[in-house]
Amino acid sequence: MTLSELCREKSRLSEADISQLERISECLPLIAELTGSDIFIDVKNAQDGSAYVVAQAKPKNTPSLYDGSVVGLAARQEDEPAAYYALENGVSVRDLRAVTQESHTVRQDAIPIRRADGGTIGVLIREKDVSRSLLEEKKYQELARLHEDENGAIFPPQEDQKTVAIQEVHHRVKNSLQMIASILGIQARQTKNPELRRIFDENTARVLSIASTHDIIMSVGVPDQISIRALIERVARNLEMIADVSRPVLFRVDGDDFMIGADAASSIALVVNELVSNSVYHAFRAGKAGTIRIDVHRGTLYSSVTVEDNGMGFDSEVRSGHLGLRLVKLTVQDKLGGELSISSSELGTRVTFDFKMKN
Q1: Which pTM does this prediction carry?
Q2: Which residue has the higher pLDDT, 81 or 3?
Q3: Chain centroid, CA 285 distance in Å
C-alpha cells in the first residue's frame, strides 16, 4: 500500500497532512544515503493509538538492518520508546535504544513532523546499528569474569574499568540532559505566551548545547580529544531545530579545526549557543532571511571563535544586562580565561571571544 492509502485507512490525518508527509517521503532515500542509516516515517493509528510505518528508505552503500519492507507494520511502545515519545509529545528524542520489527537492537533518533499550526502529524526516525557497542559491552563483561578473585569479587583491568566508567557517566549525563530538554520543550508547547515560549526555547538550547559535549565524548571515547568544529556544528544543528520557522536562517561554520578538552568544550558550546541564539531571536525581522557565520581561528596561546550575522544590529550598551550576554561574559572570563568583544551596526553584529589554549 502507498503512504496515502495507509494514512487514509488507519489515521485521521487530513489530505493536506498526507500531502505534507508524501513530500517528505520523497526525500527519505537521500537522507538514508547521506546518513548511512535506515529512515522511516511513522504515524499514529487512530483506532488504538499505536505507531505504524508509512514510509521507509534504506541506504544504498551501507548495509541495511532490514531484509525486507516494514511499511504498514506497527511498532510496540516498549520496543520503540523514542518514536512514541516524539509522536505523542511533539519533542525530538535522540539516541534511545529500540528493537525493530525484525528484532534488531538499534538506537533511534526521532523528530516530530508538524503542520503549520504546530500539531504533530507524524515522526521521522533514523535508526543506527549498535551491534558494535553491544559487542564491546559483552567483551567488557568477559574481561570482568576473567579477573574474578577467589571470593567472586570482580576486578576488571584498571584501564578498561576506567574507560567503561567514563563512557557510562557521559552517556547517563547526556540522557539526563536530553530528558530535561524534552521537558522544557513540552512546557514551551503548552504555553500560549510568546515571550515565555521563547524563554523555554532558549533554555532548551542551552541544555542541548551542554549535552552535545557529552555526546561527542561518547563517540570519540577520549575526553581531551573533542573536535571544536564538530562541537560547534552540533550546537548549530540544535538551534536550527528550535529556531522560529518564520526566520529562515542559514548557518555556516568555517575556519580551523583542532582538539580541545571536555571542560573547555562545555564552556565553548554554551557561549556559542548564547551568541547564535541572540542572532536567531533578535537579529532578523520576522520573515526576513539571514545568515549566521561561525568562524574558528586557532592561535598559539589563545584561540578565538567569531559569531557574525547580517541582521539589523543592536545597542550593546542597552543589551549588556541581558541574561544571555551576562552568562557569555562570565563564562568567557572565568571558565575560558579569555575576553569578549562586540561590534554592532545596522549592517549586522560581530562577536568574538578568545580562550586560552592548554598544552
Answers
A1: 0.50
A2: 3
A3: 26
